[in-house]
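By way of example, what follows is a protein record of this kind.
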Amino acid sequence: MNYLKLTPLDSWFFRDGRPFHQGEPSADIESIFPPSAFTIVGAIRAYLAQRMGWKYQRMGWRDGKWDEKIIRVLGDGYDLGPLMFRGPFIGRESSGVIEPLFPVPLHLLGRYEEGKDRLFKLLSPGKGIDSDLGKVRFPSAEGIEGMKTFIQHYLTAKSFTDVLQGKTEDLKIVASDELWESEYAVGLARDADTRTAREGHLYSSCKIRLKKSAFLMMGIEGVRDDLPDQFALAMGGESKMSVAERVVIQEDLFNKPSLECENRHLRFTLTHLTPAWLERWPGPGEVLPGVPGKVVSACLDRPIRIGGWDSVKREPVALKPFIRPGSIWFCEADANKKEEVLQLHGSRIGEYTGFGFGEVVIGAW
């Protein structure tokens, strides 16, 4: 698989799902970062299509839908054809070394006091408690007073591997403000013919400006012709220009964990590295699609709503609720399912997996 290091020439704009029309009450439009795989994949496929001779103009694809020659190479719409993508992930570079970063799992809690070491705890299913869901083993741990989850924080691959194995010593956690910052801007819509501002078209948006060492990473597989070592492409809202550079990274970033059996039951966690779309989120005692065993408990955040833009129809794609990266399921399976469970390590579940959605890793609890 080829990996692309993506950086903006200036800044990026990946708008959220709030209305962005004249007269709407929204004062500011936030950016989602990291962006949806749909956005990155769409930008890469558009670039590859233009390399094959397809023409783009201000109001959309000049030649309409792709012809059969391009569809055989790049697929069409949600059908990716021979292509397969991975990511996107955030990365940083130090002394020429590429270091991928991954969202902190939601079962890791921490407390930091000035002048003292950080303290970490891992949640795991506690004793059953009667609730409106029945008898449920909610995630719990001792000594977690004052501790919080690490929202918008990231782990190095080594630290993430340690957490999967239940270790919390010497974790390297990177805050989002070390990687990027939000930048609000006010703009005017411009009339293409007169090149003057259009009356009543003042808007406000939130851009993402990366820190010097930060970038996005996206894996791509199935391109017949070799990708250039470096190229420019338009990406995200306002067609912001970006630079893509081929890089080499280690494929297997996480070692398979050591799983233990208790009373002939195999206990394991399933953690989301990228957003996942499931038709239905399972409850306690139910199953995840393609995963042996049953769900015991989970640490889940509010869903992230992901849509997109249809460049042929020139209209937005309906938003869908995706499971956020860092969400974690605590599961149990029969002891004889150990190899089947470990095969899921680094695989994908749910829909749209070819775009990079649904990547999961297995851990212990």
Summary: The helical segments are 37-51, 68-74, 157-164, 338-342. Residues 58-62 have pLDDT under 50 and may be disordered. The longest helix spans residues 37-51.
